[in-house]
Amino acid sequence: MGLSGRFRSAVVIGGQGIRARKLRTFLSMISLFLGVLAVVAVQASSVLANRALLADIEMSEGKDGTVVVGVPPGPKGTSSALEVVRGRTDAVASFSTQAIIGEPGLTPVNPGGMPLRYADQAGPQTRMICDGRSCYTEVSDEKPPPRGNTVEVLVVGITGDIRQFRPFQLEAGSWLDFGGEPSLSPRIVLNREATEAFTRYQLPAEMSIGSAYQGNGPGAPGAPHATPRVIGTVHDGGFQPVVYVRADELLNWIPAEALESQSASLTMAPAAASILPTLRAKLGPEAAGQLYTTTVNSRERIGGQLDMMRWIFYGMAALVLLIGVAGILNVGLATVGERVEEFALRRAVGTPRLLLAGIVLAETLIIGLLTAAAAIAAGVVGLKLASELFGANRPTLQNVDFPWEAGVAGVVAGLVAGVLGGLFPAIRAARIPIATVMRA
């Protein structure tokens, strides 16, 4: 109880000292403000950069803990993968193929589904030739059809809502509905790059499944053309044009022999890994040995890089903080020098040395906490302004909440600065001899 009373007395007397020297307190806070704000900014930037980087990785690879299984092409590969996940909500099978959307009989502006930034920059038409020893490309002598309003995209057929594993950001319209019977007019969702293609080239709603360079396969003249219906757009973190469609609707337009040449992928929760023995049994010993299984662990993979960058910036912030600590130290020493007689008189009437040190230390701690509060408020306001001013061009700044970790870092920095800046003046105040009171 005595310690509690001394602590309360130190805080009260320290507060009275701050109120009596407002200008000096304000100058001390200014010298410390930039240092604490630097710590808050570093911590907030680190957390936001971590979130943004993980969000991009999760969209392209999956959330941490997600199990991804690669199924090789073969007579039973894709069909077996689709069968083992039928009716399950904790696992999604997907497979992909190329498609050409736009005017038929024309060469796409991005052959092979390349990003649109390289559109109309393709070289001569080539084809891949494989023999028993290796694969190589050969320039075709055939003159390709002229380019026009047609774009090559990657079509991804999925059996369920893959957003539970890869959190795509829905930007317009709606996501795929996997209820009801499949439609002969495929419902598709575009990613950003595919949306840009539809906007830039005014593509007609005609889709030929398969690449333009697959000879007599899908996509060749005479192949059936589906009429897709665009129902939404998403951000999937990809750079090439991609459209997402229900797997059963895509299968309506892919012949069985073409499906055998497609590889598939299973994306599942860890608890759904029990379907792997069933899949291996369906594939047979040879194909089952080619399964590739991996578990997404992005935080561990990128954590070291983020930590290194964080500590580099923390070192820079610490230098700025030390300048503020030096300011508090100078002000504290000057204040103790002016109050020598006061502290000696308190010692003469029985005030313990520890309480004198506590009075001085309480002043610097209060200054540190007030400065931390001001720095945190500035960080909150700054982040809100940045979101409003730059959020339209920077999606990572849209609807961003101030990270609580930055607030904790600011409070800790303020307390550390208060202790470092007030410790030496507090020791000096505690060592003032009682005889000094005779000067008064």
From TrEMBL:
<comment type="similarity">
    <text>Belongs to the ABC-4 integral membrane protein family.</text>
</comment>
<keyword id="KW-1003">Cell membrane</keyword>
<feature type="domain" description="ABC3 transporter permease C-terminal">
    <location>
        <begin position="316"/>
        <end position="434"/>
    </location>
</feature>
<protein>
    <recommendedName>
        <fullName>ABC3 transporter permease C-terminal domain-containing protein</fullName>
    </recommendedName>
</protein>
<keyword id="KW-1133">Transmembrane helix</keyword>
<feature type="transmembrane region" description="Helical">
    <location>
        <begin position="402"/>
        <end position="424"/>
    </location>
</feature>
<feature type="transmembrane region" description="Helical">
    <location>
        <begin position="26"/>
        <end position="49"/>
    </location>
</feature>
<dbReference type="Pfam" id="PF02687">
    <property type="entry name" value="FtsX"/>
</dbReference>
<feature type="transmembrane region" description="Helical">
    <location>
        <begin position="354"/>
        <end position="382"/>
    </location>
</feature>
<keyword id="KW-0472">Membrane</keyword>
<dbReference type="GO" id="GO:0022857">
    <property type="term" value="F:transmembrane transporter activity"/>
</dbReference>
<feature type="transmembrane region" description="Helical">
    <location>
        <begin position="311"/>
        <end position="333"/>
    </location>
</feature>
<dbReference type="InterPro" id="IPR003838">
    <property type="entry name" value="ABC3_permease_C"/>
</dbReference>
<dbReference type="InterPro" id="IPR050250">
    <property type="entry name" value="Macrolide_Exporter_MacB"/>
</dbReference>
<keyword id="KW-0812">Transmembrane</keyword>
<dbReference type="GO" id="GO:0005886">
    <property type="term" value="C:plasma membrane"/>
</dbReference>
